Amino acid sequence: MSWLHFAVLSPFLFTLIVPLLNKNIRRIHTGWFVLAIPLLLFIYFLGHFPLDPAVAPVVHSLPWIPSLGIHFTLYLDGLALLLLLIITGIGTLVVLYSIYYMSMEREALHNFYVYLLIFMGAMLGIVLSDNLLVLYGFWEMTSVSSFLLIAYWYQRSKSRYGAQKSMLITVSGGFSMLFGFILLHKIAGTFSIREIIAMSGDIADHALFIPAMLLILLGAFTKSAQFPFHIWLPDAMEAPTPISAYLHSATMVKAGVYLVARLTPIFGGNMEWFWIITIFGLITLFWGSFMAIRQNDLKALLAYSTISQLGLIMSLLGIGSAALNANFSDQALLFSGAALAAVFHLFNHSIFKGCLFMVIGILDHETGTRDIRKLGGLMSIMPISFTLTVIGGLSMAGLPPFSGFLSKEMFFTGVLTAARNMDQWVFLLPAVAWVASILTFVYCLILVFKTFTGPYQPQRLDKTPHEAPVGMLISPGILAVLVVVFFFFPNLLSLSLLEPALHSIMPNLLPPGERFDVSISAWHGFNTELIMTIGIILLGTMLYIYLKNWSGIYDTLPRKYTLNNAYDKGLTGMERMSLKFTSTYMTGFLHNYLSYIFVVMICLTAGTLLGQGVFTIDLSTNSSIELYEFMLGISVVIAAVYIVFSRSRMTSIIAVGSIGYMVSLFFVIFRAPDLALTQLVVETITTALFLLCFYYLPKMKKELSRLRFKISNLLISLGVGITLTLIGLSVQGHNLFDSIARYFENSYELAGAKNIVNSLLVDFRAFDTMLEIVVLFTAGIAVYNLIKLRENRRNNR
Amino acid sequence: MKFTDVILQTSTKILVFIILTFSIYVMFAGHNNPGGGFIGGLITASALILLYIAFDVKTVHEIIPIDFKLIGAAGVLISLLTGIGSLALGYPFLSQAFAYRDLPLFGKTELATAVIFDLGVYMAVVGTTMTIILSIGEDE
């Protein structure tokens, strides 16, 4: 355990006391206590800043399941630090904001903050994990906490729908990613990302390399809402706004981007990687910005804009990966500029989008609606919110003097680099990027002007709007200040944070000791990028003014062919299919289920036994059968036969019990006191249980069933009996494994126990026992629920 | 399930204590003699069931107001925590240890973490068995 491990685990540990704080200290908003965690973590991670490239990155390892190569290894390098600061920094501001947003009286705050902390810890884990499987575990944990947070207002059906959608899409992507990780392990023989990177040159030719890459990308794309998996993000907006600001714009959706960046040293040299990521990124960029314009709900608009911006970052990472390709080694540094733009824009996007979401949350809070058609003319009523929206919105649109302008220019440089240095039809990239940027500009104008200018319509609002309390404005205010500061001083960031991040994306590009040239400036002369920006402003303004004239194109695609419709239809179709399939064999008759089990057992066991010809009888090592053993055996048979012909339940229960007791006598004869004791008590309790259950059954009637039914039952029972007898007889003749007895002979030395059976249960195989009692307890709770739920339903009727 | 049988009730009153004592002995004896958490748990459960059969559910619940679900959950938790405990001390999950110490009254006694784990098993078995039987028994 190191401090770094403790830092990752601290949010999880704190969740244990959040409910207590919420319950016992009612006067103080629970958020104030929670605020300490991200704040302290932020300060702690600032302590690692700036990373000196000459010093090796921080690595702490903790063996977890060493036999499977799973270690809880944390690895803090430039890329990790960048994301850590975003996670904890934005996290602090979001918690602060939520204190004013979430009502102390009305909301279940303990749930909210517990989910939030679980998410935060999981996110730190993703970013710091060096082990792929540990990363996967944290990855799914973010999906689960996101599910819980989207469904926070679970009374609303739309919340539940959005939560389920995001869960299904991200978890199935995550599952395919797990497959990819396992394939990667098969190729490289290790789960450690650093070790795989070290051998990245050797594994690229492996047959499973491309499948592993595709599967992992599927996970990254679903998480980062890339087209066509983006459909979950707009529905995730049902979450409380602090959550939308934190999970669904600043951090969780960046996990896919992070994964792509992290694995670029492994896959980056492949052209498939370049093409897939660049193309999907650009499609997402275009489609997101196109769809954002038609939205009336401000949060939905921001959701589509997040999708679009994520596509932008993704495509930059794709273009940047070409730096690692051997064909472009001369232009490697040019291409690496695209990756720099990606990390810079990732940072910028977190800041301005976080700010925008918080302002939209304020609007929602103060006016009671997020519908653009109802809002308008709020500029004079909410001047501070207006200013913040202008800063965030224009930064998103890529205008100076806001930091978004810088990364947008670098984005254009990136696509132009690709177009200039590659042939084929790569010239399309700048065109798509440019069109998408125009659309981005349009929706930014919509966001700012439709909300704050135009006619003021107080009659359509639920509340009388006024400026938000100071506490709510602090967080977006800080972010807005940063947006401006980083425009004027981008190199504060680039040398200390972006350069080390770039180094971890492309560790072997430069000779050791050298650093990337990362100085960012706003003015590069009158070049193509600037002309593109000017074009965007002119055309974008035109499109905004004539919005009504061309918005008809959104209705050209019928609702039937949308992705959302495909998702809904697919889901209901699957449910119907599985219901149909399940109902063919789930008949509700116990005897059907038993016959499935027995038939399968006979087929598999007897089939193997006879098919392989392994049935032998070897009685030579047996001791002679004593008279009392013989008599005991006969009585068991008599009792068993009696059950079949018994007319009353009570007597058959007693007969079953007597078989059990006689079996325990056998255990006594064979000197197994533990088994005998257990069998005796189990039999007693089972008999009591039988008596209880049969108490509720109707009187046993003489079965009036068809002959065919009786014959099939007879066959099955004969089959089971014969199979088990055959197995019992042939066991003696085979010695497939070494006896494990010797292993337990030294139980006294190893476990300090004279009772071998017990030391087996609680020491040598304690893990089995532990899982067994978990299963036992789960079964107990299941029985309890089945019965109590039925009772409740009956009472409600 | 309600019937009154004086002989059963009278003998149950004595038997239950004998069985309970025996079950606790069996539970702790398991380390070196036949017995252990699983058997001990089942014997305790059988003693309680006898009580429920002799008297009725309501009466017994007034005498022993225990929520057996909690006992079961606590048992699973104890077993889990002994495993995590060894993890925290730097050993693999669920490593057990033992030592011999001189204790007042008992003299030289073997102390084993396995017994704590076994106690968890015992509680889980008692809790689960009683939960199942009581939920079926209380059902109307």
From TrEMBL, chain A:
Record's keyword terms, sorted: Antiport, Cell membrane, Hydrogen ion transport, Ion transport, Membrane, Sodium, Sodium transport, Transmembrane, Transmembrane helix, Transport
Record domain NADH-Ubiquinone oxidoreductase (complex I) chain 5 N-terminal: where: 65-112
UniProt domain NADH:quinone oxidoreductase/Mrp antiporter transmembrane: residue ranges: 129-419
GO MF terms held by the record: antiporter activity
One GO process term, biological-process aspect: sodium ion transport
Main location: membrane
Domain MrpA C-terminal/MbhD as annotated: residue spans: 636-699
Record GO cellular component, one term: plasma membrane
Domain MrpA C-terminal/MbhE per the UniProt entry, residue ranges: 712-788
Protein topology in the membrane: Multi-pass membrane protein
Highest rank taxon of the organism: Bacteria
Subcellular location(s) per record: Cell membrane; Membrane
Residue ranges of the TM segments: 6-25, 32-51, 71-100, 112-128, 134-154, 166-183, 203-222, 243-261, 273-293, 300-320, 332-363, 375-399, 425-449, 470-489, 530-547, 593-615, 627-645, 652-670, 676-697, 709-729, 769-787
PANTHER family: NA(+)/H(+) ANTIPORTER SUBUNIT (PTHR43373), NA(+)_H(+) ANTIPORTER SUBUNIT A (PTHR43373:SF1)
Family per similarity comment: Belongs to the CPA3 antiporters (TC 2.A.63) subunit A family.
Protein name: Na+/H+ antiporter subunit A
TrEMBL record, chain B:
One Gene Ontology term, aspect cellular component: plasma membrane
Compartment(s) of residence: Cell membrane
Xref: Pfam families: MnhB
Transmembrane feature ranges: 12-30, 36-55, 67-91, 111-136
Keywords, in A-Z order: Cell membrane, Membrane, Transmembrane, Transmembrane helix
Ranges of residues in domain Na+/H+ antiporter MnhB subunit-related protein: 7-131
InterPro entries: CPA3_antiporter_subunitB, MnhB
Membrane topology category: Multi-pass membrane protein
Family the entry assigns: Belongs to the CPA3 antiporters (TC 2.A.63) subunit B family.
Name of the protein described by the UniProt record: Na(+)/H(+) antiporter subunit B
The organism of origin for this protein: Paenibacillus roseus
Lineage: Bacteria, Bacillati, Bacillota, Bacilli, Bacillales
